Amino acid sequence: MIISDIQASPKESEWVEVKVNNYNPETIGEYVSALANGAAYMGQSKGYLAFGIDDSTHAIVGTSYNPKNEKIGNQEIENWIATLLSPRIDFFIQETRINDKRIVLFIIDSAGNTPVKFKGTAWIRVGTYKKKLSDHPERERKIWQNTHNSTFENKIALAGITADEVITVIDYPSAFRLLNIPLPENKSAILEKLAEEKIINKRAASYDVTNLGAVLFASDLKYFSALSRKAARVIFYKNNNRIHAIKELVDGKGYAVGFTGLVDYINASLPVNEDIGKSVRKDTPMYSPVAIREFVANALIHQDFSIGGTSPMIEIFKSRIEITNPGKPLIDTLRFIDHTPLSRNEQLAAIMRRMNFCEERGSGVDRAIKQCEFYQLPAPDFIKEEAFTRVMLFAPKTMRQMNKEDKIRACYQHCCLQYVSGEKMTNETLRNRLNIEQENYPAASRIIADTIRAGLVRPDESSKSRKFAQYIPIWG
């Protein structure tokens, strides 16, 4: 389909160059630079250098050029060019036959927001001519300012596919339902709307699926090789370590398509507490379903997609749940409560908010922690590492089972929730949070004192009464 797109183009463009047998290595390197930069300038995801196509008629004539046999010194031409590009970009060489005529195609990633140089010089296509980028400062400025092609969501997950293939790899009925858009009556209108929503891009004779479209609406992520390892995983363990896994689910659907089913599966598989009151049995979830929903959504949305070989994981142990996503958080974990969320994936986050899978601001985390308080559960623990972010949810614990860190974390989070609700933490509110009897108020006072020493809360200076002292977060 890529060849069909090239043939359908009326002439060579800023991101397409066709040749028959001109294969000077220096010239090819300059064209890789020019087409990468030209694609960025024109808002295209790829540039193409095709051998075996007539440059005037775009007819397929075949080529004798065989780059696999070309070497510069001891290096194959592909590797030789790659080492001389700055910054390094991905490109690869694909060979095919059409009507028994040989075609060689260089498929080149667009520059991000930094022009690509070959041997220290940046080139660009201007119409049908290859020029030094420095001679066209207006184009150079646009590339430096370009963020479109450096954004994960706008990059291409699957390029040059047919309309029927789009309908196969994208769960379009679910996409229209979740986006609250009437389902068009014909294929052409469906594809037009998918392009409008930036789920796909329309090319001259084919379609590209964007990362945004694939990661949210894939009927199965296995269709997208670069994203197949990003499927959410749920693992159940027998005990509190990872030695004995009981079962595992890999949810291959796009995040939006599979989200409700994923969360329902987790909640349905978790243990419950059986309460018996007035001869009526009632099963109460051991963990807050709201908290699980919010934290799973955050893990999917805020992950760092540039980290390969890893995916969002929900690991369920005997007495805790760990929800982990690739990438360190962009804000301090202590400010997760009431902080406007920052995301590496703004378009993905925006469309997930539009489908009501997450909140416009940081209230989702607030509500999740509030639900943990309502269920009288230990406070969640947020762990920040260089390559991942992890939220730990804990099964019910008595005060005796909680260690000092558990109590300080609960005190701090409770204080934050009170503050963002326009109220203040007191000994009484903390006792209610931790289910401490009134006569044991000194226990609550000790926890507050420990949290003050930890530098997390402080007395409210407007409160003059020691007996009814009020407290606010250290950042309040």
Query: What structural class do you assign from the helix and strand content?
Result: alpha+beta
Compute the separation of the termini in Å.
58 Å
CATH topology of the largest domain: Heat Shock Protein 90
> How many helical stretches?
15
What percent of residues adopt helix (DSSP H or I)?
A: 25-40%
Instruction: Evaluate the radius of gyration.
Output: 28 Å
Main β-sheet description:
6 strands, mixed
Mean pLDDT: 90
- Per DSSP E runs of 2 or more residues, the count of β-strands stands at 23
| CATH class descriptor of the largest domain | Alpha Beta
Shape: elongated
In the CATH hierarchy, what is the architecture of the largest domain at level 2? 2-Layer Sandwich
| Spatial strand sequence of the major β-sheet | 15-14-18-19-21-20
How many domains, as an integer? 4
Strand composition percent = 15-25%
Unreliable stretches (pLDDT < 50, length at least 5) are 276-281
